[in-house]
Amino acid sequence: MKRPYLENILIVEDTPFMAEVLKDIFTEEGYAVTWAKNAQEAIEIYPKTLPDIVTLDIVMPGMDGIELLGELFKIDPALKAVMVSAVGMESHVMKAISMGAKNFVVKPFDKDKVLRCVRAALKEY
Amino acid sequence: MTAFYVKDERLYANIPYGSELPFTEVVKEAREKAGRDMQIDFVALREAFLHARERDFPVGSPDPADLQNEKLKIRFSPDFINAYLILFPPKGKGRRLGEPEIRELIAAYGVDDDLLDLRELRNALMRREYGEPILVATGAKSLDAESFSISWDVPPSDPVGFLGAVGGLPEVPMQILRVVRPAQVAGKRIKPLPGRPGYTVRGETIEPKPSEDPFHLGEGLRISPNGAMILATARGHLRITGDHGIHAEVLPVLELEGQQGLEDICKDHFYPGSVIINGDLESSAQVRVLGDVEVRGALIGAGVEVCGSLFVRDGIINNNRFGIAAGGIVSAGFFERARVWSHTIHIRRYSLHSSLLALDGIVGSHSCSVNGGDAEASGRIDISILGSANASPTRIALGPRPALSMRDLLKSWIGLIDRFEYSGEVVKKAVAVERAHLEMLFGRTGMKTRYDDTFIKAATIHPGVKIAIGGGVREIGNKTGAVRFTAERIGDKERVAMTKL
What is the ipTM of this complex? Predict the structure, then answer.
């Protein structure tokens, strides 16, 4: 169910197609979405918008999602992040979870699972 | 710079409005201030940064167990009229928050304590539905001021305004076109009630939208010094157009007791104003008028070309030789063997063996009828009774003929206006306005091939009536009650669908 207030999501994803898929899923549900196409852009955007939640692609050129997660925690220790990974990246996902990420979703995206993950994370303090 | 201070063994932050300080710096300052003695709740610090500027907001405690306690957030609707409480469960050995603590936190978000719905809040605390937003405070939306309105004594003379005012009535006011003199009151301007301010849940005032004056007064009119009246500044026809009469101007007017001299005045050009004939019009030639025409009698055998509207108190009879054409509405009590082309045709009582073509619609009063002849529109046809008990052949259609006929006519009118040299500033302005109106109408005469958005509606249809929409035709064999006809396509075939009302 859509919330009566606005919640912001920052998508960090280097593949425009994947970013579009996530953007469509979230905007359909009434979330406000911002897209950062790499880690550098995410570090610039994050402090300006302080989104309610961030989805982080693990594999990105330059700084990867795990490293970026650490950088974003320095900016905002209360950050909520959901990791986005391909199949077979369990070790990376576990590392991110141990660093404080709330959950993870695997590509290709299952709309219901993505939304379940994000909603569950947003329901936490 | 953020102010941090300790009160009752708790760390509070007060972050100013418009602070250029990035959140990273606020976190750093909080860490420095907290030192080793205080545990910082970074979620609370973030909440203070985002939602509680310039308010004392608890962000830390010396007891690490406090961070395990039940938590809350307040979220606001985009217009800040509603505030929602979201509770988060305690962790480990954390405890539930009491009502005073919760109310203190809600107040820290800026929610006005007087606006709190304590019953709802207490219910929420009883239910403890974690993670679900609960409406706990509501402000009030502002009530925008109404727009100004003007009370005119006569109905507008354009199709939309006229039909809106008197469309369903079998009789119209005694005088539709009104002549005003300088300093005469043309209309009463009604000042609307002012709006009412609203307030957000944070107690901020929401200003109502101020009153708007949607009326456009053209030549020959002004607002009285006290703002309560519209006064005429020239003699002429008070021409009101637009839905609710939002445009008004004073046009030159020719008032005649009969038709004498009329043909000479507008023989080879449009008379640049309106014409009122206090009696019958029985001309043997064409009459051309730029504004509106009102015949306070019958129009017998005469031809009239009017860029605006034509109102005939009695009826239009036997004008097959010349025909009547209007860029606005043609409204008459009856049409007998009449030939009319117009933007809209309004039948107050009946049409008998006439040929009626309307670019937009043919509509009538609640008891009007079309008996014999043909009526074709590009928009809609809404007539109470179609045909007659003696099955006289009557064709009712939605098709391209009105657009094709009006197209050539409008083109010739624009050419006629351009060829004639009008004099006087007021006249030139009126001519320019009417020319633009004709150009707009001309733009609407494009070839229409589908009639999916149009309909023919009637309360009674007699046998002998042929209904045509686009390429589909339906002949009525039996008397029918209230129905609506629409276009229907089955493959390439067009049909007329009939729906009972």
Answer: 0.92
